[in-house]
Amino acid sequence: MEITDVTVHTVSLAEVEGKKADGTQDAAIVTVDTDEGITGIGEADSSPAVVDAIVSAPVSHDKSAGLRSVVMGRDPFDVEVLWNDMFDRSYFYGRKGAAITAMSAIDMACWDIMGKAMDKPLCKLIGGVHRNRVRAYASTLFPADPSDTETMRSRATAAREDGFTAVKFGWGGFGESHRTDRELLAAARDTLGPEFDIMVDAGMVWGGDVKRAVKEGRRLDEAYDLFWIEEPLYADNLAGYAKIGDAVPTRIVGGEEEYASYGFAEFIDRGNVDGVQPDVARSGGITHMNKIATLAQVAGIPLYPHGYSTDIIIAANLHLCAANENAPLLEYCVENSPLRWELVEEQFPVTADGYVEVPTDPGLGVTIDWETVERYRTSSPSSA
Ligand SMILES: [Mg+2]
Questions:
Q1: pLDDT band with cut points at 50, 70 and 90 for residue 280
Q2: Which of 23, 93, 117, 120 is 20 to 30 Å from 178 by CA-CA measure?
Q3: Rounded Cα gap, residues 340 and 334, in angstroms
Q4: Cα 25 from Cα 58, distance rounded (Å)
Q5: Confidence band (pLDDT; 50, 70, 90) for 207?
Q6: Cα 139 to middle of ligand 1, angstroms
Q7: Which alpha helices (DSSP H) does 162-310 contain, by range?
Q8: Sheet containing 3-12: order of strands
Q9: Pairing state of beta strands 3-12 and 251-254?
Q10: How much distance in Å is there from the Cα of 3 to the middle of ligand 1?
Q11: Which of 74, 94, 119 is the last residue of a domain?
Q12: 159 and 104 in one domain?
């Protein structure tokens, strides 16, 4: 089988709120065509225009090539070889960040092609089915206005009414002051009761201030019994992560801004985190998610796959949670964007007891809804 084209489809809502940490406002969908008529689907969760440029760029020199030029004519079953070649040929502008993100989409699409060619769901290709449904947590934002405890209560209520048994609040107005953080979490705990799991995504709000992160983390965990505190610091601050991990009893997790097995090996080892959150559409696709899952397993910590975009990522993460024993939780973004809910034909509903079924159709198990893509398309698709 040979890859005959790589196409980037960029979509966006008409209005993007620039200061809102909401990844469902745009998307970069990547399709990989083959000479056998099978098309694979992937997504890159980054700036869609940047992803498009990384895929489409002409060759500058040996270590600076657009990714399409690297994979054209190659066998999509050679995922490891393709991953390494894309990494090598983009090394000059790549290594971390958007280049790995664009590689992630092509890698996902190759795995989707393999599953379709073999008529097997992706999870069967990467280990099997430890679980055929995955406990999901509702993932939402703190209100932008940190005094808006009513919105906090309504988001907490919605999570419980939708069937979830856990909810994560992130970004938004969190971190403005200790008083408002307490009021927001008090509203959530009061609404949800003592049994419901509550996660806080600090969204790097404490910057490089490790002492403040430790102090706030301890106080909030003691008062509101948090399931985890996510991304208290930048992913580069490994010494800071290790200090917080030692000083705060709740789980300290992160990694959605870290890349590939190399990055996660250090993040786990030196950062001493209690769980890792690679994003399949950023951190290296299925190929490196598998490696990161193994690193986490060896370190004795869970893999908590990150995802805050479309159902393509939801589907990929369901397969990863099925195939990896140490991946017990699915992030389930509840943003109200049509790009979150209408980009693929399949739906992944939450059961009354808070679980989502693993897809059983071949490959990722998703079908692009091209009407939605055309409605939100921002430019002509770039292809060979
Ligand atoms: Mg996060």
A1: very high
A2: 23
A3: 8
A4: 28
A5: confident
A6: 9
A7: 178-192, 210-224, 238-247, 260-269, 285-299
A8: 3-12, 26-34, 39-44
A9: unpaired
A10: 34
A11: 119
A12: no
